[in-house]
Design a protein that fits this description.
The protein has 432 residues and is an alpha+beta fold. The chain contains 15 helices and 14 strands. The longest helix is centred in the last third of the chain and has 18 residues.
Amino acid sequence: MVQPTTVRQEIQVGIGQAGLPLGTMVYVRQGRREYCAFAYGQDWLKSAARFNVSADLQLLPGYQAHKAVSAHDSVFHGAIADTAPDAWGRRVVARDHAKRRRVNPQLPALTELDYLLAVDDFSRVGALRLGSADGAWQRTVAQGQRSTPPLIELEHIFQASRAVERGQETLEDLRYLQGKGTSLGGMRPKCTLVDEDGSLAIGKFPSVQDERSVTRGEVLALRLATLAGIDAAPARVVLRGRGSEQVPVAVIGRFDRDGSGGRIPYQSAASLLQASREQERSYTEIADAIRSHGHAPTEDVRQLWRRLLFNLLITNVDDHLQNHGFLHVAHGQWRLAPAFDLNPFPDKERESKTWLSEQDGPITDAAMLLARAAYFALDSSQALAVLGEVVASVRQWRRLAQAPGVGLRADELEDFAPAFEHAQMDAAAALL
């Protein structure tokens, strides 16, 4: 009987712009079995600035093992898994590998570690940094070359992404896109880029499968969220191309960097709850986690409730736990990250993916949110005040949709109308 080949690789993990040594991760693959283990370094465990970077990594000496709970979960610890490429990024990596394997059939199959290391250090989400024993951080291009494109290259990125979607990409297209993916997104074509002011941003492109202007819709949702009192990622639509061939690209600011380019530790709500993708989890559990680990728990649970109400009223039903995040403040305390990946879905049922509570099930109307407001530190009068603010803001969707920075045409508004104008809006207004 042939024994399965064992692959073992050691990765040095650093943190922050200074790349302070955090610990060592060991990845092992034996046949189809994969697992990893992580150990904090002694310097980190003795540091006054120490904190557990992921809810499933306690501040203890020695290796802490982790393996995927299900086929849909990551082999890596939560906050490390949060830095891996999303579905679009994985698609680019897999296509590139497939093309190279045709030339060299001896290339081994991709591992989960290959995907994790396919993200360039410069643009990796959060503050964790992966490198080799010699201290070099993981890069997808040669030292001295630019790995993250500037805003002016948006059209080039779009054309390469469109080629991948159509299955017509060249090796040059794939090489250009490699490492520029992001963990914050999903299956839609996108790329990390450097904005005009030098800050990191995500560029999201129209898909060949779009039946409406999804990129404008996401920017509209993020701007409406800000109007509704929600801390949301800054967003605008940038046109690339000429004349009738112009393409609306959503440029969304990254919130895991500070004003001087410093890296802010990040973990998703799924990581904070140590939740499997196959489990039904709830917003009351997120509220509990905020109370346990939050820097400003009362403010954040109230903000969370406001977001739940807003998501309901704009029909944002893609609210899985990877689409909520937390930023580290100090001493193991976390704040709710700005809202991101908000999309109105005019063609879907108004039912949240994440449950309100184990007893309530998915969110389907404003009345059930009001009934649970006390769990989110809001009395009835406070909850009604928030409801009034959110309803008033969402009612302005047509004005914001046609404003500069979003730019929906009048004839495109009806594509989105069912997401904003519906019976639940009327029911919510009747509660005021």
